[in-house]
């Protein structure tokens, strides 16, 4: 299955004000906490693929920590903003890629990164399979997704209202993914989850890191 038009079109239509809107809707605190968590998940030897990078808010935090970063998205306006933001990082490149089916060879990367992608797509399992395809055996998957899990009721309602005010109704593909669901989906794609955590004080993000395991070959 590949990307549906509406899935990324919805975000493309909001690309010009995406950073400002995210800051209003989610708050800078959660984004800062996600960035701090990400800082501990990479090494300077990692060749990293980011899927659904948007305007590059998290690419900017990761690029200085790794050997190479290819930041990808389906939306060109989003990629243009990411490129402008990361202009100073010579190890960062930007490409239009569909997270459901990228053009990269198998086992190309040491790590794949996705922030706020899996909860906005209609079929996260297919994207996780694609991550498993392009990561080498023993390589990493690093995921962070905003979730309503653990968010106090009032804070959740206020977040929903801020979202509606800025972005209107969410696309039909949007869903809430709990940390357990993210872990299960990631394991089903062939990764061993080593660390899983809910971060954030009021609004939360479900974060995990997993390692790709070689899959047993089926008996003949
Ligand atoms: C909610 S935004 C998150 C952006 C960024 N990761 C962040 O957290 O600030 C989701 C991004 O995923 C992109 N996207 C949606 N479907 C995609 C697909 N199938 N392949 C690649 N990118 C996709 C959208 O264009 C958008 O930039």
Strand numbers in spatial order across the main sheet: 3-2-1-4-5-7-6
Query: Approximately how much beta-strand content do the residues carry?
Result: 15-25%
Q: Any idea how many domains?
A: 1
Summing up helix and strand content along with how strands pair, one would put the structural category as alpha/beta
> Span from first to last CA?
28 Å
Tell me the Rg in angstroms: 16 Å
SSE order, as H and E? HHHEHEHEEHEHHEE
What is the helical fraction, as a range of percent? 25-40%
Structure description:
- The protein is α/β, with parallel strands linked by helices.
- It has one domain: Vaccinia Virus protein VP39 (Rossmann fold).
- The chain is 36% helix and 25% strand.
- It has eight helices and seven strands.
- The protein has helices spanning 5-12, 18-25, 28-39, 57-62, 76-85, 124-134, 153-167, 179-188; strands spanning 47-51, 68-73, 92-96, 109-115, 135-147, 191-199, 204-212.
- The chain has a seven-stranded mixed sheet, with helices on both faces.
- Helix 6 links the parallel strand 4 (109-115) and strand 5.
- The longest helix has 15 residues, at 153-167.
- It is globular and about 45 Å long.
- Bound molecules: S-adenosylmethionine.
- S-adenosylmethionine (SAM) binds at residues 3, 7-8, 11-12, 51-54, 57-58, 73-75, 78, 98-100, 115-117, 120-121.
């Amino acid at each position: 299955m590949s990307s549906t038009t509406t899935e990324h079109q919805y975000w493309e239509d909001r690309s010009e004000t995406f950073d400002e809107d995210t800051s209003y809707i989610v708050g800078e605190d959660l984004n800062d906490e996600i960035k701090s968590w990400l800082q501990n998940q990479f090494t300077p030897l990692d060749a990293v693929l980011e899927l659904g990078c948007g305007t590059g808010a998290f690419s900017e935090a990761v690029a200085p920590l790794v050997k190479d970063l290819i930041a990808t998205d389906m939306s060109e306006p989003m990629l243009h903003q990411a490129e402008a933001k990361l202009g100073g990082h010579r190890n960062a490149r930007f490409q239009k890629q569909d997270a459901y089916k990228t053009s990269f060879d198998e086992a190309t990367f040491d790590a794949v990164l996705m922030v706020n992608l899996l909860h906005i797509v209609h079929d996260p399992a297919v994207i996780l399979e694609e991550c498993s395809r392009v990561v080498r055996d023993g390589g990493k998957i690093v995921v962070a997704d905003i979730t309503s899990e653990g968010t106090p009721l009032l804070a959740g309602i206020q977040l929903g209202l801020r979202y509606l005010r800025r972005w209107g109704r969410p696309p039909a593909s949007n869903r809430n993914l709990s940390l357990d669901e993210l872990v299960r989906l990631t394991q089903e794609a062939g990764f061993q989850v080593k660390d899983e955590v809910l971060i954030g004080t009021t609004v939360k993000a479900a974060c995990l890191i997993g390692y790709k395991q070689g899959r047993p070959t089926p008996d003949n």
